[in-house]
Amino acid sequence: MKGLAAFVMRGRFQALMVAVAGAGSLLFCWISAAVIALVTLRKGAGAGAWLLAWALLPSGALLYAYGDSGPLTLLVGTTLLAAVLRSSVNLPLALLACVPVGALTGLGLTAFGGAYLEQIVAAFGQFLGAMEQQLSQGGEAVVLARPDAMQVAGMLGAGTAASSALCLLLARYWQAALYNPGGFGQEFRALYYPPVVTAGLALGAIGLASAGPEYRTWAMIAVLPLAFAGLALVHAHAAWRGRGRGWLAGFYVAWAFFDPVKLLVVFAAIADSWFKFRQRWSGRPGTDVSERETDEDR
Known about the structure:
Structural class: mainly alpha
Low-confidence stretches: none
Largest sheet: none
Shape: globular
C-alpha cells in the first residue's frame, strides 16, 4: 500500500488515474477516497477538490444507473474530513466531523433515496425470510425482525461515516509513511476527547436509541468518534505494555466478532476523558505513552 501512495504522489496524472479508476467500483472506491484524502492532506483542499470533481463522474454514473449513492457519499465524506484535518491539523476534530457526514448521508437518503431504501428493505426481507425457513426446520417457528427504511438509512449513514473515517486514517498513515515515518502511530495513540465532547456524543447516542427502534441505527453515528478514541486507547495500552502486532491482531478479532468488546471500547473512551489513563500509565505529568515507538511505527 505504501507503494501505491508513492505512485500517486509522483504527479497529478498518476493521482487522477487511480482516483478515477476506483471511483466507479463498489469494491475499490475506498482506494479512490483515500487517494483523494492523501492529496488533500499533502497538497491542499484545491488539489483534492480537483481530483474529487473527476472522481464524481464514474461514481455519479453508478448512482444514475443503479441508484447506489455509496461510492459518491464516501468520496465526498472522506474529502471533507481530509479538508478539516488539513486546515485544523487536529485528528480528533477531523474524526468528529464524521458525525455530521453520517447524519447528512442518512437524511439525504430519507429525503431523496426512498426507492433505493425500499430495494434494500426488500432485499433484507428476502434474506431474513430464507433464514427463518432454515431456522424453523426444527419444528418451532422463528420470526426475525425486519428493518424499515428509517433504520436502513441510519445504517447506511453510519457505514458512510465509519468508512470515511477509515479512509482518512489510511490516507494519514500513507502520508506519515512517506514523509514522517512513525508519526501516524504517535498521533493515533494520542487520540482523545475532552469530557464535554464525550458527554455530548454519549447523550446524543442514548437519546437516539431511546427515541424508538427506528432510530437506534442512527445512534451508531454518534458513537463512532468514541469507538475510534477507544481503539486509540487500546493501542496506547499495548505500547505501554510493550505488546506487539500479534496481541493487537487478537484484540481486533475479538472486537470484530463480539459486541461486548465493542461496548467496552466505547466505555473505555468515555472513562479516559475524565481519568486520562495515558498520563497515569506514563507516570510523568504532561506526557503519555502515545509518545513511545512500537513495532507498528517502524
